[in-house]
Design brief:
Blueprint: H1 2-11, E1 19-20, E2 23-31, E3 38-47, E4 52-55, H2 66-73, E5 76-81, E6 84-92, H3 95-108, H4 111-118, E7 125-130
Antiparallel strand pairs: 1-2, 2-3, 2-5, 3-4, 4-7, 5-6, 6-7
Length: 131
């Protein structure tokens, strides 16, 4: 599904695909932690107090998605939302802030609760703060 979604996003310049499965979508462009190349992913987000929140569920896999690994290595990224590019810095939430943000994701899209049950890792939640 995400491959078709990304194609639709690219072809329409972000006009189509900004919402799917009832959730808002943004494009996150990070620097590859191994390659140093730019890497793009479409991802669900929720609005947070200081910027969009993104969740590294990786559908409950035992490892973090590549974009999380990339942000851990280099927190500077580009966010494309509402057809506007913004430089951002990824801030990983911890403790209660992370737990509360994750619960927001699970409330809006219940599959996140399933993802949490499928893995032993703590699923990261990141706020994308504009620079």
């Amino acid at each position: 599904m995400w491959r078709f979604h990304k194609l639709m996003w690219k072809v329409s310049g972000g006009r189509l695909g900004s919402k799917t499965r009832g959730m808002d979508v943004l494009e996150l462009i990070t620097t590859g932690h191994k390659s140093g190349a730019r890497r793009s992913v479409l991802i669900f987000y929720l609005l947070g107090d200081t910027g969009p929140l993104v969740c590294g569920s990786n559908s409950g896999a035992t490892h973090d998605p590549s974009w999380v690994k990339n942000l851990r290595a280099d927190p500077l990224a580009i966010m494309v939302k509402d057809r506007k590019s913004t430089q951002v810095k990824g801030q990983f939430l911890t403790g209660d802030a992370r737990s509360q943000a994750f619960e927001r994701f699970a409330k809006v899209y219940p599959d996140y609760s399933t993802y949490r049950e499928l893995t032993d890792r703590e699923i990261p939640v990141v706020v994308l703060e504009s620079l």
